Amino acid sequence: MLFKPRFGGSDSGLMRLLYQRGNSFQHFFKDKSTVIGKSQRRKSAKENQRAIFGRMRAERERQAKQYRSEGVEEATKLRSEADRERAVILAEANRRSSVIRGEGDATAARVFAEAFSRAPDFYKFQRGLEALKKGFEQNSRIVITNDDPFLAPIR
Fold first, then answer.
1. Residue 24 in contact with residue 3, Cβ under 8 Å?
2. Which of 50, 123, 130, 136 is a plausible cystine mate for 116, CB 3.0–4.6 Å?
């Protein structure tokens, strides 16, 4: 039985009618606690405390999850920025090394050209020695005569 009259002892006919038919009208009320005379179960202090702590824990877990996701996002941004800077630095270093290597090769070619233009016979001898060196680098045998131009540098 959901309804009990709370009026000091005098039950008029209207109150009796409400008391008898109250349960059948209950479905008209959206909030069941607004029905006159409904007895509500009171939670104990421990149940309230558990519920509060549960809500607090859920809120802290939600915040922690949000902070973790923000941290992961920030870490990803930092890593991508560092990777980009690394790529830029490596590209610049490779460019500089290519320029320096090219300048060195140009200087070497210029020095060799000057030296060999002063002594063309020495240049011819030098080239012949390089050809012999490359020819004998591999473990191979060469059969040639004494007057072969290939041996001219060492005669």
1. no
2. 123
What is the full DSSP assignment across 104-138?
HHHHHHHHHHHHHHH-HHHHHHHHHHHHHHHHHHS
Distance CA(73)–CA(80), nearest Å, equals 11
Dihedral sign, Cα of residue 63, residue 67, residue 73, residue 76: negative
